[in-house]
Design goal:
InterPro entries: PA_dom_sf, PA_domain, Peptidase_M28, Peptidase_M28B, TFR-like_dimer_dom, TFR-like_dimer_dom_sf. By secondary structure, the protein is α/β, with parallel strands linked by helices. 36% of the residues lie in helices and 17% in strands. The structure holds 2-acetamido-2-deoxy-beta-D-glucopyranose (NAG) (3 copies) and zinc ion.
């Protein structure tokens, strides 16, 4: 029963991230009433300072900045003036900011071409850019035509071959194709977006001897669809048939950051290595309008879509989704990329705290694949402007931050989380000794649906702050908090309290992997709201204004939430972490591991799972007692003890970082969470233990279980010492 329950809900486990898939959005059906609806008064009760922060947000200003960020080419490394303007505005708002430059390896599109050659000799050339729409001015910009449909870091190459439809190009899709003897070697893959991170799709195709891969957005993964009678953008909520999802194909599950400087910052003159995380076969993304003739040409060849008998194999287009290959039908794919070592610019703004050894970081990336980027990432960028203003307003009253606050506007996130990773690599020792937490906003607003990923110790605070944040939107009744909206629109696993674990896909990754907890917050599209044209020219200011957040109230909602969150984290004498929830989640991770070896007593003994479970139970008891102790009013009167509790809560997170990293991917050091190796976005808990188990390497699995057990015991000792 329990496992079925988990499986049934796993579709709702959206990762909140920039590089993410928007699918499985039919989640507003019969919400499970698992979390009590808000029990606090409305409007929320704020302290004087919180009131200043909550009311300082101006939707007019957000509108102005949303427009600013979405009207010029700001692909990674291409718009220094936008970085300078961001620094200038933050500084004017009272947060002293400057640029942090790195020199990194990037690739830009030079020549992209895709032609279908039918068996009868007819040709069909695919359009590798979106239609320009008069209504949506940035889609008509000449610079929009200079940012064609391409994949960051895709291999240059020219290939012509028969092609095979491979579903979502998941490892399991390829296993199913092999089982049915579909010939893959030397062919080009045609894959649907959705499921695994696009870099993994390329890696899987490459591993099966395929010579290229083409990916398309399938309308069957959308809520509103033309096929369901809905009009397409700009006239309605369905996907525009020419929209294309760009994106990176670097294997960030191996390591993120500059591919030529793994583990160290890309300062001028540093030694560079040959990247080991980039694809060797060329790839291109295409629209569904252009995918249709490609799919149709395969109809009647190979195994039919229904014959594959796999969930999600057949999509929403009028084709049989047959595997092919179709004899004589080929794709000619040209992908020519310009390779460059080139500067990128993070903007770093700092408020020094009175405690120099405690730091909270708030970040958003600034670069986009397209001229727009109104949701990804510049809804976050416009919000960050207002956040610096809110703290500036508070400082004008004489308020001093107890802790350091670092505001970051990252560059080159889209390619491989580069700006944040290089910065974390540069300041690793300082961050390791002072950082308490990292708050991320990437796609701040792409719809009405609150979505949050967070390390467990932050979740209780996040819920509390959601209850203090008014959810304002043109469609909501006005007496709703963010918590109410979150509760109304989501379905939860009770143990998650509505949060996902953080895998990868946005700038929190480098932080989490050095044992710094993080939160990633967004308002996502729902199954009824306008389709999100992720990484397409239609993620534009016009779309945002007409289809999502006309008055930028949702933007303000996200900004207020993050601002109040940051305020409590920097201002509370006792850091508002919940170590009980942290401990509870460690136990859930162990329980999930146990599910995998249910009934296999020998295996359980071999990998020492009952020892790890016992350590987990002790941690749970100790953490609960710790949380009870520190919440006594008298505890707060003892400054020395509070300081000690704060140090302990900061350092407990670091205990789970294993210096040498996970087997085969040393960048990933957090023994509790890493990106799932077959998915790339989703988190895998206890990754090294689980992967070793699945690989049948019980010795390695035991080694990691014992290592985690040791960390759990140390965590218990530290918490008990306060
Ligand atoms: C940089 O972005 C700004 C704001 O969107 C835009 O006005 C400007 O043209 C862009 N610069 C370049 C070099 O594209
Ligand atoms: C679907 O495709 C078939 C075969 O090509 C065609 O006969 C039919 O009209 C199409 N249906 C729609 C709704 O376009
Ligand atoms: C913050 O403190 C550092 C180190 O003392 C100092 O160099 C820097 O100028 C200060 N920055 C601000 C904005 O006050
Ligand atoms: Zn993004």
């Amino acid at each position: 029963m329990a496992t079925t329950f988990l499986l049934a809900l796993s579709v709702a486990q959206l990762t909140t991230a920039c590089q993410r898939e928007y699918r499985d959005l039919n989640i507003d059906q019969d919400p499970l009433n698992l979390v009590p609806r808000q029990d606090t008064p409305f409007p929320p009760v704020w302290s004087e300072n919180e009131k200043i922060l909550h009311t300082s947000f101006s939707t007019a200003s957000i509108d102005t900045w949303s427009s600013y960020y979405t009207h010029g080419d700001h692909m990674a490394g291409r718009n220094k003036s936008m970085a300078e303007e961001t620094a200038r505005k933050w500084t004017e708002n009272g947060v002293s900011a400057s640029l942090a430059e790195y020199e990194v390896f990037l690739t830009y599109p030079k020549e992209q071409k895709l032609v279908l050659n039918r068996a009868n000799g007819e040709q069909y050339e695919v359009q590798l850019f979106e239609d320009a729409l008069e209504e949506d001015e940035t889609t008509t910009y000449p610079s929009s035509r200079k940012l064609p449909a391409f994949h960051g870091y895709s291999a240059s190459g020219e290939v012509e071959a028969e092609y095979v439809y491979v579903g979502r190009a998941h490892k399991d899709d390829f296993a199913a194709l092999e089982k049915r003897n579909v010939d893959l070697t030397g062919k080009i893959a045609l894959a649907k977006y959705g499921g695994p991170f696009r870099g993994l799709k390329v890696a899987n195709a490459e591993a099966h001897g395929m010579v290229g891969i083409v990916m398309f957005s399938d309308p069957g993964d959308d809520g509103p669809q033309v096929a369901k009678g809905q009009a397409a953008y700009p006239d309605g909520p369905a996907r525009h048939p020419s929209s294309v999802q760009r994106g990176s194909v670097a294997y960030i599950g191996q390591y993120p950051g500059d591919p030529t400087t793994p583990g160290y910052p890309s300062k001028p003159g540093v030694e560079r290595v040959k990247p080991s995380n980039l694809p060797k076969i060329p790839s291109l993304p295409i629209s569904y309008r252009d995918a249709l003739p490609l799919l149709k040409a395969l109809d009647g060849h190979g195994v039919s879509g229904n014959g594959m008998n796999r969930g999600g194999w057949v999509g929403g287009l009028n084709a049989s989704y047959s595997t092919g290959p179709a004899p004589g039908a080929t794709l000619a794919l040209t992908n020519s990329m310009e390779e460059k070592i080139t500067p990128i610019w993070n903007v770093i703004g700092i408020i020094n705290g009175t405690n120099a050894d405690e730091t909270v970081i708030i970040g958003n990336h600034r670069d986009a694949w397209i001229v727009g980027g109104a949701a990804d990432p510049n809804s976050g960028s416009a919000i960050m402007i207002e956040m610096t203003k809110a703290f500036g307003e508070l400082m004008k009253t004489g308020w001093k931050s107890r802790r350091n606050i670092v505001f970051a506007s990252w560059d080159a996130e889209e390619y491989a989380l580069i700006g944040s990773t290089e910065w974390v690599e540069e300041y690793a020792p300082w961050l390791s000794s002072t950082a308490l937490t990292y708050l991320n906003v990437d796609i701040g607003v792409a719809g009405p649906l609150p979505g949050a990923g967070a390390t467990p110790e932050l979740r209780t605070l996040a819920q509390e702050i959601m209850k203090q944040t008014i959810y304002s939107s043109s469609n909501s009744n006005k007496d709703e908090t963010l918590y109410d909206a979150w509760y109304r629109l989501n379905r939860f696993r009770p143990e998650d309290n509505g949060f996902t674990h953080l895998g990868s896909g946005s700038d929190y990754t480098a932080f989490v992997q050095m044992g710094i907890g993080a939160l990633d917050f967004s308002l996502d599209p729902s199954s009824q709201s306008s389709v999100y044209h992720y990484h397409s020219n239609y993620d534009s200011y016009h779309w945002m204004k007409t289809a999502v957040d006309p008055h930028f109230e949702l933007h303000a909602t996200v900004g207020r939430f993050l601002t109040l969150m940051a305020y409590r984290l920097v201002d509370d004498a006792l850091i508002p972490f919940d170590m009980d929830t942290h401990a509870r989640n460690v136990n859930y991770m162990v329980r999930d591991f146990v599910y995998e070896v249910m009934g296999q007593n020998e295996v359980q003994r071999a990998v020492k799972i009952s020892e790890l479970s016992a350590a987990g139970r002790t941690l749970r008891d100790v953490a609960r007692a710790f949380q009870e102790r520190v919440s006594q009013p008298r505890f707060l009167e003892d400054g020395g003890r509070v300081a000690k509790a704060n140090r302990v809560m900061r350092d407990v997170q670091r205990l789970f970082v294993r210096k040498e990293g996970l087997p085969g991917r040393p960048f990933y050091k957090n023994a509790l969470f890493a990106p799932n190796r077959d998915d790339g976005y989703k988190a895998q808990t206890l990754p090294a233990s689980i992967e070793a188990l699945r690989d049948g390497n019980l010795e390695l699995c035991k080694d990691w279980n014992l290592w985690v057990m040791d960390a759990v015991i140390k965590a218990s000792d530290m918490l008990a010492s306060v």
